[in-house]
Amino acid sequence: MLEVLHRDGLSRIGRYEVNGRKVETPALMPVINPNIIVISPEELKEKFHLDALITNSYIIKKDQVLREKALKEGLHKFLNFDGIIMTDSGTFQSHMYGDLDLEPDEIVKFQKDIGSDIITILDIFSEPEFSYEEAQDAVKITYERAKEAKKFAENATLAGPIQGSLFLDLRERSAKLMNSLDLDYYPIGGVVPLLESYRYSEIVDIVMASKLNIDFGKPVHLFGAGHPMVFAISALMGVDFFDSSSYVKYARDDRVIFPDSTRYLSELKYVPYPSPYLDRYDIEDIKKMDREERFGIISRHNLHVTIEELERIKNAIYEGTVWEYAEERCRSHPSLYNALKELYKYKEKLERFENLSRVHPFYYTGPESLQRPSVLRIEKRIIDRYKYKRKSCIVINDKDTDKIMKYIKNIDSHFLVKTPFGYVPYELLFIYPIIQSPMPAGSEYVENLNKILDSIDFDVLISWLKEIPDDISGIKNYLQEKERDLDMLRIRAVADYQFGKGASNFLFNGDVKIIKSKNTGMIRNIFLDQKHILSMRNDGFFTLKMDGGKILHKNLEFKKLRTIVNRESEEFNRKGKNVFARFIVDMDPELRPFDETLVVNENDELIGVGRTFFNREEALTLRKGMVVELREIIT
User: If DSSP codes are grouped into helix, strand and coil, which group holds residue 219?
Assistant: First the structure.
C-alpha cells in the first residue's frame, strides 16, 4: 500500500509497504542476478541503505540448485535481504533470447512459493517495431494472464505490466484493463529499447498514457529505467520505482555513470561529480587496476550516483522545485530536452494536479518554464472567474505600474498588466506565482492578450504599452473617473479567482474591514460584520476561516468547494481530526492540491474548513494518508 507523504504536481514522495516491509519512493530497485552477484544484497542494505531490490524468478527457477534453495529457505533468506524483493517473470529474457520454457500460471505460482513480495505476471513484451495488431494481441494476452493470476495468487501483491508498444490508445487501454483488475502495482513495460536509443519523447507519451489511466493510489514502475539522467522527468510524471542492472553492465565495459551522462573511464582525466568510490584514488591509478578490482569500484560508484540523484529529486519534491530541477536536468541532452517539450503538450491534463501555491518562488530556467501547468491555470482562472463590467480596458507593462498608480486609483477601468505569465488584471498581480517570481531581463512571456480580452467585459480598449500619456484629456470621454478602493478590488478579485466566479458577491456583502500589517502594509485579515472570515497569506491567497466557510457553504451549490466525508469519519472530524483518504465519499473536481475546502457530511452539513493536499482523482483512489488538514470546525 502506498501512502503519499509529500507531493509536487504528479511527482510524490511516498511510503510503500508490502508484507510489513517499507521503502520510501521514488526508489531504485537494483537488479540482482543470483548467478552473478557483484554487490551483495546485504551490502545494498547496509552500505547503500536500499530497502528494495528486484531479481528474476525465471533465472532462479531454471537452475535446480537455486530453485531448491529458494523454495526451501524462502527468497529473503536465500538472498540475505530483509527489504522488499520484487521478482520479474522472465518476460525480458524471452524478449531478448526468444521463446523460453515458461508457463504463465506456473511462473506466478513459483514466485508466490518462494515468498516474493511483488509478483510480476508473465506479460508479452511489446516491441517498438510491433504492428498495431501485434501490440493489440500483446495487450489482450497480458490482460488475460493477469486476470488468471489474480484468481490463484490470492493475497499476493501482483504487478500487472502495461504494454501497447508505441500505440498510445493501446497503452491507455492496457492501463484501464489492468486498473479494472484492481492490481497492487503497475510497471510500464516494453520501454527498454526506447531508453537505449534515447527515444525519450516517446517514453513521455507512453508514461502519460499509462499514468493518467490508473488509480493514483497505486505505485508506478518504469521497467528498465536505471540511468539517473531520466529520473527527474520520470518522477515529474509520477513514476515511483525504477530498476536496472546498468550500474553493473556499464561498469563491465568501463563506463562510468554520472547524473547527466555516461563516460568511458579512458576518457576521464578528472571526476566531474564527487564520488566516495572514485575520489579515494587517482583516476590514472584506477585505469591501471586489475579488471575485477576496477569493475567493483565502478559498479559501486555507478550505484552511488544513481541513488544520490533520487535523493536530489526527493529534495526538490519536498521543496516544491521539481519542475525547475527537471527542466535543468533535461537541458543536459537534446533528446531529454525534446522529451520535456513533449511533456508540456500535456499541461492541460497536468494542471489539475498542480499545487495552488508553493513555498519557493517560481524560478525561470528558460522559455520552457512558462509552459508549466501552473501558468496555464492563471489564464484559465482569469478567463473563467474574472467577470466585472467596466467601460474601458487599459493595457500596460508591468514595469510601469508604479508610474500610473494615479490612474489605477482614480479611473474605473480594467488595467491589464503585461507580465511574463501573460496579461493579468492589476488586482491579481500579487498572487503566486506572479509577484513571487524573479525573472531575468529579456525573459520570454506568454502571449494571451486576445484570450483575456475576449473574456472580460469592456467597451473601449486603450494601449499604453509603448508610452504612458502625460495628458489624458483627449480620451476622457472613454474613461470613467472614480476614486477606487484598491484593497477592496484586490480581495474581491482574489476571492473569485480562488473560490469561484461570484464568490466575492456574498463574501463581502456587508460591513467589510480590512486589517493590514503595521510593518509591511500588506493585507492580513478580512472581517465581515465584525466576524473574521479570511486571512491573506504571503502567497496572495486566502486562508479560509470558519465564519467565511459558513458563508461559502450557504451560497455555493452542493459539491462546490466541498470535500464530502462518510458517517464513520464525521464523528472524528467534528472533534477536529484531519480527513483521511479512505473516508472520502466525493470532492469538488475543481479543487486543486493546497486549495481551501469545506468539509461536509453526506447531507451537506458543514463540519469544518481546511486545506486539501490532493485533487478528487487522487483522493478517491488513495487508500491511506491525510487528504484534508482540518483547520477549524463548527462549534
Answer: coil
The answer to whether 293 and 280 are in contact (CB under 8 A) is no
Q: Look up the domain containing 464 and give its range.
A: 367-484
Q: Which helix (H) or strand (E) holds 30?
A: strand 27-32
Whether residue 479 sits in one domain with residue 393: yes
Q: Which of 221, 243, 265 lies at the terminal end of a domain, its last residue? A: 243
Sequence-distant (≥ 6) Cβ neighbours of residue 403 within 8 angstroms: 468
Contact predicate 16/47, CB 8 Å: no
Classified as helix, coil or strand, 507 is helix
Q: Which residue has the higher pLDDT, 435 or 207?
A: 207
Number of domain units in the chain: 3
Q: Residue 414's beta-bridge partner residues?
A: 393
Q: What is the pLDDT of residues 557-595, one digit of tens each?
A: 999 999 999 999 999 999 999 999 999 999 999 999 999
Residue-wise pLDDT tens digits, 270-318: 999 889 999 999 999 999 999 999 999 999 999 999 999 999 999 999 9
What pairs with residue 612 in β-bridges?
628
- Rg of the Cα atoms in the chain: 28
Spot the catalytic one: 88, 123, 260, 398. Answer: 88
Closest of 427, 432, 430, 423 to residue 452, by C-alpha: 423
- 528 and 510 in contact (C-beta within 8 Å)? yes
Task: Please report, to the nearest 10 degrees, the dihedral formed by the alpha carbons of residues 134, 140, 144, 145 taken in order.
Answer: 40
The owner of cell 503538450 is 345
CB-facing half-sphere around the CA of 353: CA atoms within 13 A:
22
Q: Which amino acid is at 375?
A: V
Q: Is the pTM here over 0.85, yes or no?
A: yes
**480 with 393, same domain?**
yes
Q: What does DSSP say about strands 523-528 and 531-536: parallel, antiparallel, or unpaired?
A: antiparallel
Same domain, 431 and 564: no
Q: Is the pLDDT of residue 97 over 60?
A: no
Is residue 131 packed enough to be buried (19+ CB in 10 Å), middle (13-18) or exposed (0-12)? exposed
Q: Is residue 379 part of a domain?
A: yes
Residue 529 a catalytic site member:
no
